[in-house]
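Exercise 7b. Backbone tokens:
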């Protein structure tokens, strides 16, 4: 297997952590009931393949996030930062 770049490795690790946290939150039984997997299949997938699947997702440029996550574009983030700077500059100027 090809050695992963640091960024790809970090993304894969975050994907795996997000999946394991979500699994702990909802329980393996629930996942099995909904997905049709047996508990042993889910356990094997988690132990033997999860890291590989997470690396594949990262290689495709995907990341695992909670369903209620909100995405902010770089342009939106820049706009919010500029507005925050303007706000704090106004506060500082008002103090003078």
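Sequence design result:
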């Amino acid at each position: 297997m090809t050695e992963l770049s640091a960024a790809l490795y970090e993304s894969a690790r975050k994907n795996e952590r997000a999946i394991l946290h979500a699994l702990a939150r909802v329980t393996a039984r629930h996942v099995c009931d909904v997905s049709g997997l047996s508990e042993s299949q889910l356990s094997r997938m988690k132990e033997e393949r999860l890291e590989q699947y997470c690396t594949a997702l990262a290689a495709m440029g995907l990341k695992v996030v909670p369903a209620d996550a909100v995405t902010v574009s770089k342009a939106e983030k820049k706009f919010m930062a500029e507005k925050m700077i303007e706000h704090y500059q106004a506060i500082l100027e008002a103090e003078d």
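Instructor comment: The chain has a mean pLDDT of 93. The CA atoms of residues 80 and 86 lie 10 Å apart.
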